[in-house]
């Protein structure tokens, strides 16, 4: 590693270690409940973890050294992957952009990466939070593009959104870009440049339970089964401003939301194209994956699904309306798909397994163009190969 300008203190008490300990204790507690005969309590706890927005996002990586044009981090599953990423600094008030890996030192548990820039705040040794979006602010800051900060009328109240138009003048073709569960709107900004280049006005909406917007009646996610109504309202806003043709794009749970919009919205016929990046095509498969990762007995995961759906379980799970995961299984519902889809998903996605995406593409090759990635972790296909991602999306939305 090259000589540091500043250096971090040892890891003692580092927030990521504390977070790992808390997570491990939570998982161990759930498993203990299950093995001790408390399957009902374990299933309720698991379901709540899935449906409850995170109150805060703790730091998860340590900056060890900061040098001229480079930064050294501790190695984690995230920090060693090639590509472009960011760091939230000072609890999200600051932001820095990182480039490719320059050197990996397994013995020291350290990785040296390019430092592409500090957008705001001060990058110094100490705790930070990994940012997979790369972009750390609204489009006018991150992309240097004129941006309208607007609100539209959602079911629960006013919802903030960004509008970015080609040359600053809205067209009659609007793309609605839907971020994932617990993510910020910056997640979708990677799609704005290729869309603008093809004449699409970009609308980046919010939905219930986002930070700073109205929460749902129970303060829980419905995994797309209620959030779709907020995106439908955003589509109505676009139509009121002259949109005659719509494109929907969704990342992770944003993909699940988009699929519900296509199924339920009266405006779905105006949608000509769909882009899905690492989408949740089947929430049942995602929950089963995480139950296995946490070593939960299969009956506990199955019981959690039942509790989400059945009225008797609503109070234990903390929801007002049932969350029927069968409605989110688009492999089973493949025959109901009516729209052309560009589906991008990494085989190395650790959070939303790509199997259902592949299965949907195999079931509907007439509509689904499946583009498989390698190396990329969840929703990080653009990060590992931005040129390929932007060329694919640009070609798909052209015309």
Describe this protein's structure:
The chain is an alpha/beta fold. It folds into two domains: 6-131, Thrombin, subunit H (Beta Barrel), CATH 2.40.10.170; 139-282 and 329-397, Rossmann fold, CATH 3.40.50. It is 31% helix and 25% strand. The chain is built from twelve helices and 15 strands. The chain has helices at residues 15-35, 39-51, 139-142, 192-197, 228-240, 253-264, 283-293, 298-309, 311-317, 355-363, 381-384, 386-397, and strands at residues 6-7, 61-67, 70-74, 85-89, 94-105, 110-120, 126-131, 148-154, 157-164, 173-178, 201-205, 245-251, 271-277, 341-346, 368-373. The strands form two sheets. It has an eight-stranded mixed β-sheet, with helices on both faces. Strands 2-3-6-5-4-7 form a six-stranded antiparallel beta barrel. The radius of gyration is 21 Å and the shape is globular. Mean pLDDT is 91; it is low at 1-7 and 9-37.
The CATH homologous superfamily of the largest domain is called: Alpha/Beta hydrolase fold, catalytic domain
Q: What's the alpha carbon Rg, rounded to whole Å?
A: 21 Å
Point out poorly predicted stretches. Answer: 1-7, 9-37
* Order of secondary-structure elements: EHHEEEEEEHEEEHEHEHEHHHEHEHH
Whole-number tally of structural domains: 2
GO molecular function, one term: hydrolase activity
Protein name: Alpha/beta hydrolase
Domain AB hydrolase-1: 176-283
Keywords: Hydrolase
């Amino acid at each position: 590693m090259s000589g540091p300008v500043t250096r971090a203190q040892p890891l003692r008490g580092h927030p990521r270690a504390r977070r790992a300990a808390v997570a491990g204790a939570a998982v161990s507690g759930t498993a203990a409940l299950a093995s001790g005969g408390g399957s009902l309590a374990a299933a309720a706890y698991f379901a709540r973890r899935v449906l409850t927005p995170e109150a805060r996002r703790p730091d998860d990586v340590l900056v060890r050294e900061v040098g001229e044009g480079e930064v050294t981090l501790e190695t984690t599953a995230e920090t060693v992957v090639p590509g472009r990423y960011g760091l939230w600094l000072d609890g999200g008030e600051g932001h820095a952009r990182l480039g490719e890996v320059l050197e990996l030192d397994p013995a020291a548990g350290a990785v040296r990466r390019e430092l592409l820039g500090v957008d705001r705040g001060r990058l110094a040794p100490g705790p930070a939070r990994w940012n997979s979006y790369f972009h750390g602010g609204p489009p006018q800051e991150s992309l240097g593009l004129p941006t309208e900060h607007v609100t539209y009328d959602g079911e629960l109240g006013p919802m903030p959104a960004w509008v970015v138009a080609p040359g600053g003048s809205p067209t009659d073709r609007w793309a609605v870009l839907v971020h994932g569960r617990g993510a910020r709107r910056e997640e979708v900004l990677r799609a704005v440049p290729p869309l603008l280049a093809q004449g699409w006005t970009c609308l980046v909406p919010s939905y219930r339970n986002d930070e700073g917007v109205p929460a749902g009646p129970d303060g829980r996610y419905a995994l797309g089964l209620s959030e779709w109504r907020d995106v439908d309202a955003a589509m109505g806003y676009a139509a009121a401003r002259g949109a005659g043709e719509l494109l929907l794009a969704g990342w992770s749970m944003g993909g699940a939301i988009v699929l519900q919009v296509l199924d339920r919205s009266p405006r779905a016929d105006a949608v000509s194209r769909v882009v899905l990046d690492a989408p949740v095509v089947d929430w049942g498969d995602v929950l089963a994956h995480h139950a296995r990762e946490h070593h939960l007995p299969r009956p506990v995961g199955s019981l959690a699904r039942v509790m989400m759906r059945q009225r008797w379980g609503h109070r234990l799970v903390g929801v007002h309306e049932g969350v029927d995961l069968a409605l989110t299984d688009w492999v089973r519902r493949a025959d109901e798909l009516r729209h052309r889809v560009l589906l991008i998903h990494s085989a190395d996605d650790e959070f939303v397994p790509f199997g259902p995406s592949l299965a949907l593409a195999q079931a509907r090759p007439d509509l689904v163009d499946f583009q498989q990635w390698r190396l990329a972790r969840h929703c990080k296909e653009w990060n590992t190969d931005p040129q390929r991602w932007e060329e694919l999306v640009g070609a798909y939305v052209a015309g």
